[in-house]
Each structure stands twice: as C-alpha cells, then as structure tokens.
Amino acid sequence: MRRALILVFLAASFTLAAEEPNDYGEYTAWLCRPGRADACDVDLSTTVISSTGALTRETWKPDRNAPIDCFYVYPTVSTDPTPFSDMKPDPAEFNVIRQQFARFGSVCQPYAPMYRQITLAGLRQLLAGTAPSMSLEHGLQYEDVRDAWRYYLQHDNKGRGFVLVGHSQGSFILAELIRNEIDGKPIQSRMLSAILAGTTVAVPRGKDVGGAFQHVPLCHSASQTGCVITYASFRATAPPPPNTRFGKVTTKDMTAACTNPAALTGGSGELHAYLPAEGRFIVGSTSPKPWSTSAKTIDTPWVSLPGFISARCATNDNATYLEVSLHPDAAGKRTDDIVGDLSANGTVLTDWGLHLVDMNLAIGNLVDVVGQESNSWSNATK
C-alpha cells in the first residue's frame, strides 16, 4: 500500500515558474459554497449501532441559515499525475469533502476552495528524492488558498464569524495563513477557531501561545473563541514510535500541542466518530470487520458506535498526541475494532498513527464544538 505512505503533506513545496493566479470569482474554483448544489450536498445518513447491536438510523440536514462560516482546506488527495494538481475536481476531491467537511454544514455556511495542491504523485517524487528544489515556506498551494481566503473576505464574509478547518497539507497551509493573514490582526476577532488536525503545532512548554502563533491560543473549552484545536491521533496500543511523523518538536523549550476535541477542558472523553461503512478513507480503503451481529442490513454510508471510542491527550518519550482507546462490548454484538491505520505490504506503519481517520474519529465532537462557538459568537455580538 505504497500510496498510503505519501498521504501526509511534508512541509515543503516545489519551486516552479510563476503561475497565473486563479479567479475565485469563478463558480468552478470552489468545491463548496453556500446556496448551491455541489460537493457538500451529499448523503450523510448514519447507522447508529448500540452496544446491544441494535441499529437505528440517524438523518442529517444542513442549516442553510447558519450564522457563521467554515473555510476548509483539504489534505493531500489529488490523483493527478503532475506534481501539482489542476483545478478540475476528481472523485478524490469529492470524497474528501464527504469524509471531512460536509457535516459541518449543520452549524456553518461551507466554503471549500479548490487549490493546486501538491499531489500524491508529487509526494512520491519528494520521497524518492527526484523532486525539483523545494521551499519550506510558500508555494503555489499556499498562494492559491491565500487568494481564495482574500476573495472570501472581500466578497462573502460581511463581518461574520468564521472557523478554519484543515487536515494534513490543509492544516499546514492554514497554519501559514494564520501567521501571515490573521495572527495579531483585526480579522482575528472574527475567528471562532482553527481546527488543524493531522499536523504538529508548536507551543512553549507549559503555555498555549507563543510558538507557531503569537496571539492565537489553544482552545480549552467549547465556548471559547479565537483559539486553535489541533491533534494527531494514535492508537493507545500503538503509541508514537521514535520515528513518528507527528507530535514531535525538536525546538528547545517547545512541545507539540494537543487539544482533545472530546474534552477540551482536559482529560478523557468519548469520541463521536462517523466512520465510512465500507471502509473507504480519504486515500484508499480497507474492508472493516462486520459492524454488527444484527441481521439488519446497514444501508447508510456512515456508521456511529456510541461508547466505543474514547481519547485523551498523552505524551510519551517521542511525542504528544491524541491517544485513541477502543472499548469493545463484552456481549460482542458489534465490532471490536476499527480500520484506519496506514500499512505497507501488510505491515502497519505506526509512525503515521490513525492519520487516515483523524477527522472521522472526532468529527461529531468538532461539529458540536463549532455549534457552541457559534452560540458564544452570536451572544457576544448581539
């Protein structure tokens, strides 16, 4: 499963000749925008499987009148054969919207720009050492997202509160966007939160601001606004090894931040996961075990398992991370495991953790948090 090896964005970008900027006034430059049928207009119905094995159906619908916005930058998924993707969405881009972003439409107005990201093929070149020269700061992918962001602010925001949502490559780009366009600037007052999953955000030891960001702290409650939620998930039974891809900061006096979406105030909490019923991830797929012993057919694209998955922020000798624990039921009426590990030639790559399902594991919690932040924002701006 070599393709899985190159999923994560390596904080680098190809140096190319100047490219023409995208026109984000064009309809096709966005995967999602409010008030139209697009990539966010999908079936998010879910089969909820209780500890007794009973199956119930949960429906979902967007809130077309949500008072805040969500701006999403997706991770490395493009299957285009070139180092940078084009601006034409393929099944991979539509799939990642279903997996990671569309569900936020129940609490915010969705904005998801297309951008010329580093592709899976481009990352293969990086790993093989055959890529062109690289820049660790800006690149075409960042410039596209910055241009989309500026277009959104000028034409769409109209003073509304917003949440930034990203994963992996998307989180790296958003972190840079925050540093350059938001941190310490007047627009920061409108940022409810930035959800930066599947990446490493540095903070000074014992503090929650002053590392990656100078004025944007970590979130410590669901009602807090203007803060960052960030984590990288690993199984409790497979914690980050010495060669971990996430949760490690080499700068002296700094550490990796972890904010538990299930318990922002600290400690352990239940993850409200929405898992793909057929085991398809943002890249690749793995067939899951039978979800339930029930004879009833699961005919929804998503599955939820109340009480089965919990998480806490933890630290070992190698990293600070979101430790994910499973709690199988003694009666055995539903599955005792989940899929989401990266593997190669049948061997699980523990240095990547549960990167494929970082967002799936906590998306129910994250949507709830954004809803509470929206209430706090609305009350504060009345």
Describe the structure.
Strands 2-6-5-8-9-11 form a 6-stranded mixed sheet, with helices on both faces. Strands 4-3-16-15 form a 4-stranded mixed sheet, with no helix packed on it. The protein is of the alpha/beta class and about 375 residues long. The protein contains 6 helices and 20 strands. Helix content is about 20%, strand content about 20%. Helix 4 (about 140-155) packs across helix 5. The protein has one domain (about 1-380). The radius of gyration is 20 Å and the shape is globular.
Biggest sheet character? 6 strands, mixed
The strand order across the widest sheet is: 2-6-5-8-9-11
Kindly, what is the distance between the CA atoms of the first and last residues, rounded to a whole number of angstroms?
A: 52 Å
Helix and strand element order: HEEEEEHEHEHEHEEEEEEEEEEEEH
Overall pLDDT level: 91
Domain count: the total is: 1
Number of helices: 6
The count of strands amounts to: 20
Give start-end ranges of low-pLDDT stretches: 1-17
Q: Roughly what percent helix? A: 10-25%
Tertiary shape: globular
Radius of gyration of CA atoms, rounded to a whole number: 20 Å
* Helix/strand/pairing category: alpha/beta
Give the percentage of residues in beta strands.
15-25%
